[in-house]
Amino acid sequence: MSEDRTEKGAETRPRSGAAAAPAVSLSPCLPVSLSPCLPLVVGLIGGIGSGKSAVAAEFARRGARVIPADQLGHEALRQERVRQEVVRRWGSQMLDEKGDIVRRKLGAIVFADPGERKALEELVHPFIRKRIAEEVARAKADPAIRLIVLDAAILMEAGWHDVCDRLVYVDAPREVRLARVARQRGWANGELEDRERAQLPLTDKQVRADHVLDNSSSLEHLGHEVDELMHRWGLAPASSCVPPSSVSLANPVAPAAGPCRDPDAS
Questions:
Q1: 138-152, 169-183, 228-242: which has the minimum mean pLDDT?
Q2: Averaged over 74-95, what is the pLDDT?
């Protein structure tokens, strides 16, 4: 069962990834069920392999507009200025035969060295933040949109959660997450650990969340969790059977349509 923390002293939470950041009041639009302040902007947080993208797809099926920050990151790497800086710093071997950045090669470098990772973040994060702001504004301008979901792996680490009214922590046991990333991405245990070291500890993320959503089981269970959460927000799901066509980007790679979306997707 999803855990709602908005009535357990979670009216305030840190808005920064730093543990010592002062608590800042949540949006005065809360609780949603008692307020006309819509659309609600929800950020998804959780461990690698917890299934945040699967949760985003479930929200999309229920009428949410999803902003997938991973796609914005890919968009950033396609910018000519970024490509030139990547080649200047890490060499032309970072490019494939078409001249595109090979993200797996670049990732192997930056996730093994905090200094290199910081250099890449300084290069691409301003672009991603700008695009997130644009997509949120575009979604808010649509009167049909009542819920906006931001799916970003490093939402809190990058400070992008400052656009969110609520944070939802997607929970799954470590062994489940390990199995998922091994199956879906071919990662070994060491690669998961390298990437997790680049993120906030899961305990820090969970304590900052307004809600905890369990994604350790079946797709049906996940759907019930999402329905319960939307009910608590006063946002009755439009339908759990419509295709997830609400991805916000101009040329989206939408989550898989239909009722068989893999709950393991992250």
A1: 228-242
A2: 96
CA neighbor of 210 nearest in space, from 68, 17, 21, 3: 3
Q: What is the pLDDT of residues 136-169, one digit of tens each?
A: 999 999 999 999 999 999 999 999 999 999 999 9
Let me know if residue 256 belongs to a domain.
Answer: no
Structure confidence at residue 184 (pLDDT): 77
Whether 57 maps to a domain, the answer reads: yes
* CATH, residue 65: 3.40.50.300
